Amino acid sequence: MSGIILLFISTTKGLSFERKMHYKTFFLPLVFALFFLFDMFLFEAFGSPKFFMNFQKLVSISPFIGFSLMLVSFWFLNKPKKLDFFMVISNLLVSIILLLAPTHYDLANLRSYSFYPILANTFYLLYKTFRNYPSFLFGAYTFFMFTVIHDFFPAFGIMQLKYLASFGVVAFFSGFTYNLILEYEEIHQKVRIAHKRSITDKLTVAYSRGVLKEFSVNKQDTLVYIDIDDFKRINDKYGHVTGDSTLKNLVNIIKSHIRSNDIVVRMRGDDFLVILKNCGEEKSYEIMDKIADDFSNINELSSKISFGIKRAYDDIYKSISQVGELMYRMKDQKKVNSGKLLF
């Protein structure tokens, strides 16, 4: 389970290259830890003596190969030190010695003495994990350490006890898996926030054009294209602070008249697109008339808006082009009727 979570998290967008490689490399120690868990069970009755001997060797070297790979995975987070290289080489040498054991008796003796490097690995691993992972995992890591210390006594015949290191490995990786889930939630939250910012206009807090790539419309939806009349004159005569305030007021008024599943998009400058989901043109005109009245009455300059309204097609960009043309027709008609817009 930990391995699957590791590989899944390593594909998460927004994760640094170093973290991705750390998780992918950490997957291999989990595989060797799985072999080490077989030490809980007896397999003498399965297969030939030669098969059992080779399987025992695989189980014996798994903690050393796994530990070496685990240290390598940490190198993606922190620059390796001389002690790191020494520990990796030492563990690989122990693995070779165990693989060269000629008999079951020799392998059993070598496994007894291999608890010294396992004990050293345990303390060093705790040091590395506490540097790179939260201290709240102290319980799982400490239990793992004590199971290794416990196994030192039966390994040398000091006390007649059952080996518990395999259970410690389970606790260690269970704690690690729990931490991975927490890390994934934190990363996912950051990615969500970053994505929200990427499709949000900073000034008006309306959506930016980027949201249109993720949004689909159908023939039940209505598009409204809005433009503030003579907005350039507002900026030129009263300044950009007043112009920015006018844009924010318009967006706030639009949002106060539409539903939560409708969206407002700032297309450019003072142009806005409103997508009214499952809303007919007649109802859309009612909504826009209220928005236009409120905007004209609330802003100090009595600014007005022009807009076009049209049912959406499946092609949102084609629909935007057509509704934009309707907005410009309304703007041109105003100029014809009044000769010139006055504030």
Structural account:
- By secondary structure, this protein is of the alpha+beta class.
- The protein folds into 2 domains: 2-198, no CATH class; 209-338, Alpha-Beta Plaits.
- 64% of the residues lie in helices and 8% in strands.
- The chain has helices at residues 2-9, 17-37, 49-74, 82-99, 104-113, 115-132, 138-155, 165-198, 231-238, 240-257, 281-298, 316-338, and strands at residues 222-228, 263-268, 271-276, 305-311.
- It has a 4-stranded antiparallel sheet with strand order 2-3-1-4.
- Strand 2 and strand 3 (271-276) form a beta hairpin.
- It is rod-shaped and about 105 Å long.
- The two termini are 67 Å apart.
Strand share of the residues?
5-15%
How much helix, percentage-wise, in residues?
A: 55-70%
Whole-angstrom Rg: 34 Å
* Strands, total number: 4
* H/E element sequence: HHHHHHHHEHHEEHEH
The parts where pLDDT drops under 50 for at least 5 residues are: none
What is the terminal separation in angstroms?
67 Å
Structural class comes to: alpha+beta
Shape, per Cα inertia axes: rod-shaped
Strand order of the largest sheet: 2-3-1-4
Q: Give the biggest beta sheet.
A: 4 strands, antiparallel
Provide the domain count. Answer: 2
The total of helices stands at 12
Mean pLDDT: 82
